[in-house]
Amino acid sequence: MRSNLVFKALVNESNRYQLCRLIAKGTRKLHRPNTRLQETANDVFERFSVPGSKVVAARFAQPEQDAVPHKRRA
Fold first, then answer.
1. 27 versus 12: which is more confidently predicted?
2. Which of 1, 18, 35, 56 has the most C-beta neighbours closer than 10 Å?
3. For residue 64, what pLDDT is reported?
C-alpha cells in the first residue's frame, strides 16, 4: 500500500511538504513511457524509504547544472 511507503519514506525526510516535492521530482525523472505513473511513484517511494537514501534526496533537490547556455546565431 502506498501509505506504508509514505510512512517509511518519512523516516528519511520528516518534512511532508519537502517529501512530496522530492517524490514528484523523482517521479518525473524516473518515469518511462508505456509504464504506469503509479508504479513509478511507488518505485520512488521505495527508493526514499531505504536507509541512507539522503544521497538520492539531495540529488533530486539540487537544480540541474548540466544545461549550458548556447550562443544565439546572428
1. 27
2. 56
3. 53
**Residue 44 neighbours by CB under 8 Å, 6+ apart:** 23, 26, 27, 30
pTM above 0.70, yes or no: no
Judged on CB neighbours under 10 Å (0-12, 13-18, 19+), 57 is: buried
The x, y and z cell numbers of residue 27, run together, are 517521479
pLDDT higher at 74 or 9: 9
Q: What are the residue ranges spanned by the domains of the chain? A: 2-61
The DSSP code sequence of 10-53 is TTT---HHHHHHHHHHHHHHH--TTS-HHHHHHHHHHHHHSTTT
Beta-carbon count within 10 A of 19 CB:
18
